[in-house]
Automatic annotation (TrEMBL):
<dbReference type="InterPro" id="IPR016163">
    <property type="entry name" value="Ald_DH_C"/>
</dbReference>
<feature type="domain" description="Aldehyde dehydrogenase">
    <location>
        <begin position="21"/>
        <end position="483"/>
    </location>
</feature>
<dbReference type="InterPro" id="IPR015590">
    <property type="entry name" value="Aldehyde_DH_dom"/>
</dbReference>
<dbReference type="InterPro" id="IPR016162">
    <property type="entry name" value="Ald_DH_N"/>
</dbReference>
<dbReference type="GO" id="GO:0006210">
    <property type="term" value="P:thymine catabolic process"/>
</dbReference>
<dbReference type="GO" id="GO:0004491">
    <property type="term" value="F:methylmalonate-semialdehyde dehydrogenase (acylating, NAD) activity"/>
</dbReference>
<keyword id="KW-0560">Oxidoreductase</keyword>
<keyword id="KW-0520">NAD</keyword>
<dbReference type="GO" id="GO:0006574">
    <property type="term" value="P:L-valine catabolic process"/>
</dbReference>
<dbReference type="InterPro" id="IPR010061">
    <property type="entry name" value="MeMal-semiAld_DH"/>
</dbReference>
<protein>
    <recommendedName>
        <fullName>methylmalonate-semialdehyde dehydrogenase (CoA acylating)</fullName>
        <ecNumber>1.2.1.27</ecNumber>
    </recommendedName>
</protein>
<dbReference type="Pfam" id="PF00171">
    <property type="entry name" value="Aldedh"/>
</dbReference>
<dbReference type="InterPro" id="IPR016161">
    <property type="entry name" value="Ald_DH/histidinol_DH"/>
</dbReference>
Length: 503
């Protein structure tokens, strides 16, 4: 059985906890590897390595740090196929989507290639007589990222791309469900340094684990900041425990994104967009669109008919099948949870128009496949509307008015993303302005902002006040120092017992 080890101080590190997590191949349902789960002591060894690497890395000039990012990008691109195949075999998303996962992470690395420019400070000459004021952003020190299973390449790169480029050293605790790609990224990062003659040992470390490793991160006095992405209850736990231990924390949580369809929308396009956004990656995306809100009976009825027809064309297959639109979900337990939600939805009175639970893929009967499901008549107050299902399930909630369509996503406990489909610019503008959600798409079903903007939801979709990547990421991973400098001329001045003010 292949064993996935930690990666500390530039090389594979043999843990001695004796505890392992199973890594499945979701296509076959077989255990394909086991991953070591760290002890508190093993996490501490990674922290020591990161702390030892910190002074040299923080003192490396920003251009050299950017060159590492350029070289890392080149290496990841050169290994794209290998990385995508590995990612797909552990996660279950199709190869093209696995490449998208890696590419969206690489776009943050591209942002990090420009770090010398964006890291420049501010300067005011002559803020007073002979007084200049300047501010600079300095790294925090040893920092950590804890990531979910659903984007094993993109989300680690969201975090370590910016954190390392600004001069921190990093500990990544990836999901124990698909841990191989994060380790490969760390290996390629070391290779990038070696190609440039820069020793990066300890700059990026990967420690696998479960709650034990997460708690060790949250309590370790040497770790200055923690970025987390995962489900909301754990995000809230990480936020409260991390801040309790005096760390800077950003913690992104779950989602239940709505797609509002106004009567004037281009329904041909909407059906295609909804299908991709609801069922792509088997619905295991925090920016999936699992709730559709048509406004008015006419558009709802028409959309329902078209959606059913569209679902019939979907191809679910093994993740290596180039024709498959989506593959299996990540685990048997997750598959069972989705099936349970479908039953609950039915029991609580929603109409199950398409039931994907009986889907079986011939030759892969033990794989974690589930067909697409579609509900009509879903209502606020239902458990299956309130909670995140995180599977290939689309729920239709009919709204009677624009007001109701603004209200539904605004009042939902999650506020990650939302989309509106319309040809009416004024309505779209008003919706974007009023809706109580962090990321909005206008005729864009999955409004994940580009890397030089910033990613983050509202309400129970994010705890903390800074987003991922872009300038918000830079802010999160650095602290500001402001210097007020006076070089007086002439005689010694008197003491002042009054707070200095600018006259
Ligand atoms: P998860 O919360 O189960 O796991 C996330 C991380 O937390 C993993 O590294 C895991 O090892 C760790 N963890 C799990 N249980 C823990 C516990 N009891 N104590 C401490 N740490 C624990 O999430 P997941 O299933 O891997 O990912 C799916 C979730 O992530 C969904 O809810 C999805 O919406 C969310 N997500 C959110 C965003 C976002 O940006 N808002 C992006 C991607 C995924």
């Amino acid at each position: 059985m292949r064993e996935i080890r930690h990666f500390v101080n530039g090389s594979a590190f043999e843990g001695a906890s004796g505890r392992f997590g199973d890594v499945f191949n979701p296509n076959t349902g077989e255990v394909q590897a086991r991953v070591q789960l760290a002890t508190e002591g093993e996490l501490d060894m990674a922290v020591q390595a990161a702390a030892a690497a910190l002074p040299a890395w923080a003192a490396t000039n920003p251009q050299r740090r950017a060159r590492v990012m350029f070289e890392f990008k080149r290496l990841v691109e050169a290994h794209m196929n290998e990385l995508a195949e590995t990612l797909s075999s552990e996660h279950g998303k199709v190869i093209a989507d696995s490449k998208g996962d890696i590419q969206r992470g690489l776009e943050v690395i591209e942002f990090a290639c420009g770090i010398p420019h964006v890291l420049k400070g501010e300067y005011t000459e002559g803020a007073g007589p002979g007084i200049d004021v300047y501010s600079m952003r300095q790294p925090l020190g040893v920092v950590a990222g804890i990531t979910p299973f659903n984007f094993p390449a993109m989300i680690p790169m969201w975090m370590f791309g910016v954190a390392i480029a600004v001069g921190n050293t990093f500990i990544l605790k990836p999901s124990e469900k698909d841990p191989t790609v994060p380790v490969r990224l760390a290996e390629l990062f070391m290779e990038a340094g070696a190609n440039l003659g820069i020793d990066l040992k300890g700059v990026l470390n990967v420690v696998h684990g479960d709650k034990t490793a997460v708690d060790a991160i949250l309590q370790h006095p040497e770790i200055k900041a923690v970025s987390f992405v995962g489900s909301s209850d754990i995000a809230h736990y990480v936020y409260s425990q991390g801040t309790l231990h005096n760390k800077r924390v950003q913690a992104m949580g779950g989602a239940k994104n709505h797609g509002v369809v106004l009567p004037d929308a281009d329904l041909d396009q909407v059906v295609k967009d909804l299908s991709g956004a609801a069922f792509g990656s088997a619905g295991e995306r925090c920016m999936a669109l699992p709730v559709v809100v048509p406004v008015g009976k006419k558009v709802a009825d028409e959309l329902r008919d078209r959606m059913v027809a569209e679902i019939e064309t979907l191809k679910v297959g093994v993740s290596t099948d180039p024709e498959a639109q989506y593959g299996p979900v990540v685990s048997a337990a997750h598959r069972a949870k989705i099936a349970d939600y479908i039953q609950i939805g039915r029991d609580e009175g929603a109409e199950l128009v398409v039931d994907g639970r009986d889907f079986r893929l011939q030759g892969y009967e033990k794989g974690f496949f589930i067909g697409p499901s579609f509900f009509d008549g879903v209502k606020p107050g239902m458990k299956t509307y309130h909670e995140e299902i995180f599977g290939p399930v689309l729920q239709m909630v009919r709204a009677e008015s624009f007001e109701e369509a603004v209200e539904l996503p605004s009042k939902h406990q999650y506020g990650n993303g939302v989309a509106i489909f319309t040809r009416n610019g004024r309505a779209a503008r008003e919706f974007a302005q009023r809706v109580n959600v962090g990321m909005v798409g206008i005729n864009v079903p999955i409004p994940v902002p580009v890397a030089y903007h910033t990613f983050g939801g509202w309400k129970r979709s994010a705890f903390g006040d800074t987003n991922q990547h872009g300038m918000e990421g830079l802010k999160f991973w650095t602290k500001v120092k402001t210097v007020t400098a006076r070089w007086p001329e002439g005689e010694v001045g008197d003491s002042s017992f009054v707070i200095p003010t600018m006259k």
